[in-house]
């Protein structure tokens, strides 16, 4: 480890992850408190419905959005380092246009599907009007331009501060509901306000940073003129969009399938287990958010980015192993805070915990493949693993209930990372051929 720390980029990745992790831990604890409060104050059906409504909006946004932050870094990181502001601004303008178009489209499609098929995802007819209103969050939920800009300019400290806004407001909403004895509608309202406030704060931070750099004109959306200066950008955004759409099947869509098969109460238990696991995997998310911008600045021909990936993967995997052991020991007492009616979520979380080690160890693979111009390999891995996961989820959930859902998740995660590892290893052995395929064709000087 002492040798690894001599690598400036590795230190930068750890520093950025530290920024994000410092406030995210506080936010996670506050968010967990809000989730426990909702679980104890609402009936299992109401709690499950709240989770389904929130998950549905998240799922719609994830299925329709473009990963505009990845595009900003892919096409803007090196030009930004070189002082080529024109290219950077065009990338941001294109990202804003993508976010606006996909957000409005996702909201309309999500409302239309929900209007006719709410019961299919486990949302009862009495809750459909509230769920339709909640879908108005989709445009801000699916917007990734602000995080892309702030990562590009190295303001991870601002992202870290923003991360605490949403869980803090949810916690305050839960506290108000408890003090005044409010019911289901108040929890939906607090979740809604918390989400939109967090997104707006992120946008305000982004506008301020762009103004300080005299780049505020880059906020004008452009879907036609900007891409002409970014060769290969449409191909990249469509591939990452499809990959993101498939990635949404792991949590939001999977939760909706469980709700449709087993009902909202079971969906609430499944949501508790997956939310706690997602909180446990956050260290890898922080490392990834710091890793992606830095690796996009490196030359894929050299060994540096590949060795950096191995180091961060080993570090993250070690953390994942410790977290898995912590879940095996302390998972049941933690779930008991929600009340005895959610006890089944403890067994489910324990069953799914090995997926932590797999996901956290292999998180650099996706970034590596994007850097090496192999976005199609990421997409192929996602398609095969998601089809396997969804098929197993439907079959095993029908046969074994929530335990079947947990087994399906582990199977899908394992397959996804194996399929991503193969082209990454091939890419490393052929890295001397990568420069002409990626840098020259996709990032103009």
Topology summary:
Elements (H helix, E strand, L loop, with lengths): L7 H34 L2 H21 L3 H15 L2 H33 L10 H7 L3 H4 L3 H8 L3 H7 L2 H16 L3 H29 L20 H15 L1 H14 L1 H17 L1 H14 L8 H33 L7 H9 L1 H8 L2 H8 L3 H26 L1 H28 L5 H8 L3
Total domain units: 1
Strand content: under 5%
- Count the beta strands: 0
How would you sum up the global shape?
globular
Distance between the termini: 36 Å
- Chain-averaged pLDDT: 81
Could you spell the SSE succession in H and E letters? HHHHHHHHHHHHHHHHHHHHH
Count of helical stretches: 21
What share of residues is helical? Answer: over 70%
Low-confidence stretches: 436-445
* Rg for CA atoms: 21 Å
Structural class: mainly alpha
- Main sheet record: none
Overview of the molecule:
The protein is mostly helical. The protein has one domain. The chain is built from 21 helices and no strands. The protein has helices spanning about 10-40, 45-65, 70-80, 85-115, 130-135, 140, 145-150, 155-160, 165-180, 185-210, 235-245, 250-260, 265-280, 280-295, 305-335, 345-350, 355-360, 365-370, 375-400, 400-430, 435-440. α13 packs across α16. The radius of gyration is 21 Å and the shape is globular. The two termini are about 35 Å apart. It is a multi-pass membrane protein. Pfam families: Polysacc_synt. It is found in: Cell membrane. Its main location: membrane.
